[in-house]
Amino acid sequence: MNNSATELLVSATIEFLQSYPPFDRMEPDALQFLGENVRLAYYPQGALIVSPETGVVRIFRILQRGKVLVRRAGEGSGNEQSALTLGPGEGFSIGSVAAQRSSTSIYTALEDVFCYELTAETFFLLMHKSSVLNLFCTQYLASLLSQSRQQLQQQFSQHVAEQQTMNSPLSSIIHKDPVSVSPDTPIKVAIELMANRNIGSMIIVDAEQQPVGIFTHSDVLKRVVLPGIPLDNPIQSVMTHYPRSLPFAANAYDAALAMAKHGVRHVLAVDEGGCLKGVVSERDLFTLQRVGLRQIRQTIDSATSIEMLLLASKDVRQLSLNMLAQGVGAEQITQFISALNDTLTRRIIEINLDKHDLYGIEWTWLSFGSEGRDEQTFSTDQDNGIVYICTDIMDREQTQLRLLEFARDVNADLDQCGFPSCTGNIMASNPNLCLTLEEWDEKFAQWVSAPEPQALLNSTIFFDFRPLYGKFNLASRMRLSLLRLTRNNPLFLRMLAGNALCVLPPLGMIRDFVTDADPEHPGTIDLKKYGARLFIDAARVFAMGYDVSATNTVQRIKQSAPLMNISPDEAAAVVDAFNFVQLLRLRHQHAEQTQGRSGDNLVRPDDLNEVDRRILKEAFRQARKLQQRLKLDYKL
């Protein structure tokens, strides 16, 4: 082959490799070296490429075309749950080549396959030349995650930059249709409408929908209450005439300038004909700027109304988006969301304590589920309960009624602040979840001693509890009692492990992923049910089997691993995998909510980029390893 043909071949090889990680970030001279030293090999469909019987692996392969089936040695060929496929751009037998040992898996050509092959000697030279490849081979998942976070940061930074600039058009700031009344509307009607719609201003428009006045919350005291104006007077008698307005095409800076020049807190947006299109408030402009943790905490701590807390809950979401844009990991973001939501919940509890007499009762507000694990995402509902002490001199029924009345108001306020009421009624206002310490212990004991399906389902929700407010020692006593029940009950742990194996990682033999067959959601994977749950359920079993009191999934894995003789590297890979699934959920939920939808967990793998698809596949492989450990430990 002449030089020009060789150069074309090397150039084509490099062009192919640059489409896949880690080669897309490899140093130019190292990539050139790789392109010059690989050879293209062919394996027909059904051919055995690598297996334990082929001896020490001396060739590193990169799949160029076709698919390769990977199956652990010793497992039957019909065991689809334990198999996975490799596609173009994926390298294999990295660990075996690096360690100069036999493979522990069997690699078979699922269809006609072409591979770029590199001898072990050349592979080691390449590792020396390329720090990118070296990191990738020694910390495979961590390397991919780093690359994914960089891409995510670029994507969200652009979005946040657009969202937080004062050049944003008013059309991008205004998210609600304006609420307006006619000039002859009674004052009482206008004020009631403001309260019911949770708005701070009422716009008064004429018959052509052109604004002629504005009436705000501050006007109620100054212009109605103190002067003693009758509430049946028309709103035009107390409104501010000639409100400031701007064209709908103006930007946030124009609105801020108008507010500063004229000393007003609201600016109206109108179309070319002067008709009302929306209202921009001082608050809207504030949210364009970077929302800080201190400001949010101050807002929550000083809040005297649910309306103020609702605004704070929106700031929590905005700040969480900023953290995504800065490349903060999913573990930190979910804990951050949970921590601020905890603070908000506590403030709601404090506001309601002023309305209810709970004097003399020792009680604790408990969180369950994702909040109990410090793992809340953007889309979360309520999962809470109460534990209390009922002494011999107290009337148990009356004590519970007092707590239930209080809990109903707290649950209602949480719902108003963006935490929807639980459809399964897992809320403190449910009498079955507002129990004495002895009743909770008895309930837990029943579930552990008779682990039928409903009891196992309950344990996956309620055993992940955490105290939020009140006497925290009551929750500690519950935790100690629960661990005493589970550590000496191998039957319950075995049943709980079996329950964790009911859902398998959605890895396919022909396609990379097994997606939902539901015609309403074709081609999607529910990353809560088929992703996060795989790690959460396994970690719960490990924690209860090894007396780990933590409820957070990552902490359960980290604390259980040494007790189970799992190496730090293996534990880190599992944690990385779980955090990536959580990150995908956060990204998807945010994207859904920006489109005005209620954010779900249904991700379409075909829409992911190559790096994220690769990591998601590896994440599911890590989940499979956890499940294999459960099978081994509990002989399932």
Automatic annotation (TrEMBL):
Keywords linked to the UniProt accession: CBS domain
Keyword Plastid included in the entry's annotation: no
Protein's name in the database: CBS domain-containing protein
Q: Which organism is it from?
A: Candidatus Propionivibrio dominans
Q: Does the keyword Metal-binding apply?
A: no
> Locate the Cyclic nucleotide-binding domain: which residues?
22-131
Q: A Gene Ontology MF term for this entry? A: [protein-PII] uridylyltransferase activity
What sequence ranges are listed for the domain CBS? 174-231, 239-296
